[in-house]
Amino acid sequence: MSALILQKDRLTDFLSLLYEYTLWAPVQRDTVTLFEVIKDPKNTPVDLEHQASLAKRSIFPQSEELFSFDQSGILNDASKEGSKENIIFGIRPCDARSFRIMDPVFEGTMPDPYYLNRRQRTVLVGIACREPFANCFCTSLGGNPFSQEGLDLILTELDGRFFVEVLSEKGKEIVEKTASVFTPASAEDGKQREDLAKRSEGAIKRKVDLEGITEKLNGIFEHPVWKQMASKCTACGICTYTCPTCYCFDMQDETTLRKGRRVRNWDSCMFAEYTLHASGHNPRPTRAERLRNRIYHKFKFNVDNFGTFGCVGCGRCISLCPFNVDLIENLSTIKSLA
Ligand code: SF4
Ligand code: SF4
Q1: Ligand 1 surroundings by CB, under 6 angstroms
Q2: Domain regions of the chain by residue span
Q3: What angle do CA 145, 148, 154 make, to 5 degrees?
Q4: Tens of pLDDT along 45-65?
Q5: What is the sign, positive or negative, of the torsion defined by CA atoms of 253, 301, 100, 107?
Q6: Distance from the alpha carbon of residue 19 to the mean position of ligand 2, in angstroms
Q7: ∠ at Cα 228 (225, 234), nearest 5°?
Q8: What is the DSSP string of 163-191?
Q9: 271 C-alpha vs ligand 2 centroid, how far in Å?
Q10: In this predicted model, what pLDDT tens digit does every residue of 193-241 receive, in sequence order?
Q11: For ligand 2, atom 3, which residue shows the shortest CA distance?
């Protein structure tokens, strides 16, 4: 299908036509922009300017009840419930790629129906990154500010309008349902999009050469560098909670005398309790071991298990760390070790 144009002043009309879906979009709340469910697009302006966090919770909720139970057995199993399809509108290309990194984890030998049902029932409508953010380094991870990987539609902001490209059958369906808001794009629109894509890629200032990093990690498990890298870290967990590829979780049974529910919550490998055994022993007792594990997980274990780095280079863990722990600097340090 050829490209289309959506005038900016028709964006609300476009979103309003998607009422049959559960619509997630970035919304500014105080000083942060978060993905939320939008019920009334006319009165909830979306924020496409800032780097929004937590698109992943639309498919992998921060806290979810998996099922409830009583003495007779399982009562409500959320994996069997039908639900409206999701649209994640305004997702960044790196965040769309992050689902491709998480998918094999939940597909695995024990497929997770909670994640997989939502994943299959979700449409990803991306916004190309015209102006990369200060700590973006997606190009070092095989990504690109205009990457179309994993997206169903992608919008590029031109002056006063969006250039819209259809990338899948799901995307085509959305465009057909909302056809009244679009006009055909011209060759000049397409050229503007190409120029912006080139400029944006060139505007990414932060880079790290990851060639050979997995092999390098094989030999430095006991190196003193981990203590030095973790010296500023307070184990707050922000880097993991805001990371689009982090998926660690904990499960709890919350019970009263005769009934209960099983709840899954995000967890963080940066917390001391994460690996604390019932015996009191903790195999990762200090922040150095936990920071080391986070880097090993993303740049070695994920490669060993799934063949890709567990990072898309969004830079959020750098921008949002309250103590300036800098993943790019840490990776560069690891590369420079003899
Ligand atoms: S955000 Fe920074 S301080 Fe907090 S756990 Fe991560 S590295 Fe440590
Ligand atoms: S840059 Fe940091 S927050 Fe972003 S995907 Fe990589 S590890 Fe996660």
Answers
A1: 233-239, 270, 321-323, 325
A2: 4-202, 213-336
A3: 90
A4: 999 999 999 999 999 999 999
A5: negative
A6: 32
A7: 130
A8: EEEE-SHHHHHHHHHTGGGEEEPPHHHHH
A9: 17
A10: 999 999 999 999 999 999 999 999 999 999 999 999 999 999 999 999 9
A11: 243
